Amino acid sequence: MRLKEKTVVITGGAKGIGAVAASLFGKNGAQIAIVDFDKKAGEEKAQQLHEKGIEAAFFQADVSNSENVREMAVKVIEQFGKVDILINNAGITRDAMLLKLDVDDFKRVIDVNLTGVFNCTQAFLPAMLAQGKGKIINTSSIAGTGGNIGQTNYSAAKAGIIGMTRTWAKEFGRKGINVNAVAPGFIETDMIETIPEKILEQIKTMTPYNRLGTPEDVANAYLFLASDESDFVNGTVLEVDGGMLK
Predict the structure, then answer these.
(1) 158: closest CA among 90, 220, 222?
(2) Which residues carry out catalysis?
(3) Alpha-carbon dihedral of residues 83, 163, 225, 90, nearest 10 degrees?
(4) What confidence tens digit (pLDDT) does each residue in 192-223 have?
C-alpha cells in the first residue's frame, strides 16, 4: 500500500474528483479526512468508505472562511493526530463572458478557488513542519495555464494557484514539504454539465484519445504526487489533459 498509515485531507472530497480520490487513497492504506461544505454528501461519502473498511471522517467547512478552516484543521488533527498530505481540491465555477460577469461571482470564485487554497495550506502547514515532512497538492486547471473563454474568474484563480504552488515549493522544500499542482483538462464531472454536447464532442477531438478525462485520471495523478515516489518532485504543474492541443 503506497499510503499506509498516512493521513490525507481532501477538500471538496464529498463529490466528483475529490470523492474518487478519497476512495483511491483509502484503498492505498490512507486515513481520509473529507472536507466539504456539503454536509449530507460528505457524511455519505465517509460512511461509504467506512463500509469498505477505510478509516475516514467528514469535516464540514467553507474553505473561503479562514476562521472556519482553522477550526476544522484543529478537529482533523485532534482526531487523526497528524496530517501527511493535503489535497486542495475544492472549487466552483461561475462562468460568464467578461462584460456579463457579475463582480460578486468574480469574487466568490476567487474566494473559494484561490483564497481557499491559501486558508487550508496555512492551517495545516504547521503540523507538517513539525513532522518535517508533508505533501501539498493544489488543483489548478488548464484554464490557469492557458486561459479559457468565459472563465475570467476561474482562470485567474487557477493561475494564481500555480504561482502560490511554486512559491511555497521554494519556501518549504528545504523543510521537507513537497508542494505541487495538478492541472486537469476537461473532466467528466458536474462542472461540465452546462457545456453543450456539440461543444463537448469538439473538445474530445482536441486530444489524441478522442475522449474527456475521468475523475480517476486526476485521482491517479494526485496519488503519485502524494506518494513517496514523488519525493524529488517539487514546484511542478502536472497537466492531466490527454495532451490537449493548445
Answers:
(1) 90
(2) 154
(3) 60
(4) 877 888 888 998 999 999 999 999 999 999 99
Query: How far is it, in rounded angstroms, from Cα 173 to Cα 111?
Result: 26
Tell me how far apart the alpha carbons of residues 208 and 197 are, in angstroms, rounded to a whole number. 19
Question: Bridge-partner residues for 52, per DSSP?
Answer: none
Domain 7-239 homologous superfamily, CATH: NAD(P)-binding Rossmann-like Domain (3.40.50.720)
Residues 6+ apart with CB under 8 A from 136: 85, 86, 88, 121, 125, 128, 168, 177, 178, 179, 180
Task: Count the neighbouring beta carbons within 10 Å of the beta carbon of residue 195.
Answer: 14
Q: Using one digit for the tens of pLDDT, what is the confidence trace for 147-166?
A: 999 999 999 999 999 999 99
pLDDT of 39 higher than 80: yes
Whether 246 has a pLDDT exceeding 70, the answer reads no
